[in-house]
Amino acid sequence: MNSRRCRGHRPLHRPVPEQTTKIRLTALPPIVRPDTRVLVLGSFPGVASLRAQQYYAHPRNQFWPIMGRLLGQPLPEQAYRERTRCLLDNGIGLWDVYASCVRPGSLDSAIRHAVPNDLADLLARAPVLRLVIHNGAESARRMREVEALGLPAVRLPSTSPANARIDMEAKLLLWREALDRAGVLPGGS
To answer: For residue 50, what is the domain's CATH number?
Structure first.
């Protein structure tokens, strides 16, 4: 590599070759029932979730603690099957916007070659759906598509451990507002 510099010019910075896996990853199946009224849409499962085959499996992800507090249940301490049953019993489903992608690690910014899930299929799977919550910015990139289906959508701060800009209490308040407006919280509207 030529390291000579011209006066007044910075050396050229060559991009570091992207460390990427060529393995196509497949998302988790949706967790919905015909009576699902709210669907939480993430982007794509992280490494911990893919290994465990469970949504929001990373121990520092705030999704289960937030949902547990809002639903009045000790969800983080419960088995995954009990957690998802609690969500479904309260009219809340889970899915991701991408069906598959290539991604090293767990960061949304590393997602490449994403294949979207068929969001139009939501209406057939959950005919009483009244709100889609996008869990973070990457999921919200498909908000217009959801709204074009006639479904209201809201973007909430990501529960991912990578989103440390907003503390848990602030996230909890925003998630409470959205779920309460949708009428799925115990004692809510």
So the answer is: 3.40.470.10
Options 2, 61, 90, 135, the catalytic residue: 61
Distance from the first to the final alpha carbon of the chain: 66
Please list, in sequence order, all residues whose beta carbon lies within 8 angstroms of the beta carbon of residue 110, skipping any fewer than 6 positions away: 20, 103, 104
Instruction: Tell me whether residue 14 is in a domain.
Output: no
The Cα 180–Cα 189 span in angstroms is 6
pTM for the whole thing? 0.85
Look at the chain and report how many structural domains it folds into: 1
Question: Is 90 part of the annotated catalytic residue set?
Answer: no
| 32: amino acid identity, one letter | V
Residue range of the domain that includes 96 = 25-181
Residue 10, pLDDT score: 42
152 in any annotated domain = yes
Q: In whole angstroms, what is the distance from residue 22 CA to residue 20 CA?
A: 6
Q: Is residue 16 part of a domain?
A: no
Where is pLDDT greater, at 182 or 4?
Answer: 182
